[in-house]
Amino acid sequence: MDLNTPNIDIPFYQPAGDEIEVFEHAWKNRLPLLIKGPTGCGKTRFVAHMAARLGRPLYTVACHDDLTAADLVGRHLIGDGQTVWCDGPLTRAVREGGICYLDEVVEARKDTTVVLHPLADDRRLLPIDRTGELLEAPPGFMLVVSYNPGYQNLLKGMKPSTRQRFVSLRFDFPEAAREEAVLRGETGCDADLARRLVGIARALRALKDQDLEEAVSTRLLVYAATLVGAGMAPLPACRAAIVESLTDDAEVAEALMEVVAATF
Ligand code: ADP
């Protein structure tokens, strides 16, 4: 496939290195994939892009601390006096030979590892206790998980017995030219605006002494470019899309706005 030919059915993704190749090899060889990296750096978009490229259905689950194995596998639902089994997203992906993407997998309840482990190693099995089924994943199936190593406390980190079942990719914020290309590709903004916004992001990411929980993400830059593209002036657009999303502290916000003001 010609990488340079835009395809409207495939979500835009600007690669950083060999991640497309790694994903394709992992999928062809039936290996599960773990993607680690900060929030808003393109992990979800990458998986959507790859699923479309490979022509596989994609089931994405945003994991949270109440997410149980039953949420992934399925449950019996009662309706009209009848009990009906309803597949969860993981089971659907296995049945259809699709890709199941578990975003922020370390947030999920511990009991999910019981279903993920046999699927993530060479058995590729999904036992469904409640129906007595044992599904063998077809060749098209792939398990992809992600997490953000930045804001996990030690207790929540991924256990070695889980992470060593996966091929792993590290994602990070893109270098300047690539991040500018992302902004232009996503929003159609001009090169000058993309360069300025990426300049702001780089300056803010370098501010180590500001007590920010997370660095500014590419996602927030996309928001800023979108607001400017819609006609907002750059300063209020950056305040709304970038600065106020990064901090609740009014003084820190003003310090960040100084960085923005120095650019526009
Ligand atoms: P994550 O899953 O890492 O939190 P996302 O994949 O949702 O982040 O990315 C957030 C947004 O940033 C996307 O919706 C997209 O607009 C943009 N983005 C980030 N990186 C890229 C990239 N490499 N190519 C295209 N868009 C990107």
UniProtKB/TrEMBL annotation:
The lineage of its organism: Bacteria, Pseudomonadati, Pseudomonadota, Betaproteobacteria, Rhodocyclales. Residues 32-166 form the ATPase dynein-related AAA domain. It holds the Pfam family CbbQ_C. Belongs to the CbbQ/NirQ/NorQ/GpvN family. Residues 179-262 form the CbbQ/NirQ/NorQ C-terminal domain. GO terms for molecular function: ATP binding; ATP hydrolysis activity. Keywords: ATP-binding, Nucleotide-binding. It comes from Pseudothauera nasutitermitis. This is CbbQ/NirQ/NorQ/GpvN family protein. The keyword Nucleotide-binding applies. The keyword RNA-binding does not apply.
